[in-house]
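Record 1 of the preview.
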Amino acid sequence: MSKLLQRLADAKRSGVYRASQPGAIIEAAKGGALDVVEVDLRAGVFESLAHALAFPDWFGRNWDALEDCLGDLSWRGDAGRVLVLSHSPGGGELRALIDVLDSVAQYWAAREKGFFAVFIDPAQRLKLPDLYRGA
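->
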């Protein structure tokens, strides 16, 4: 098992991170029982996540509803989660998204389920920890 897969399998390390490229994350996750979802946020945060994660019809397309759906995800099975997020929004929308993702990661970690949200950030502009060395 690779070190990156070990990290992604450790629920205590759940959180919001950055990485330069998605390839190593996706490749590492193939070796485990993780639900890895690539999310291109260009169509908007709510629409992109709802589509990528197959949110139920009751999803209200607001921050509270996003947190509710990410805190459930029962329709996606019982595996730990890795969201690989590209084309992140800017400003207040990004801050709100990071706050929701961090809250959800803490929620899942307390239940011993991994939840990793990884922003693909080749320029390393986001003030987030790197998921792995060389990220």
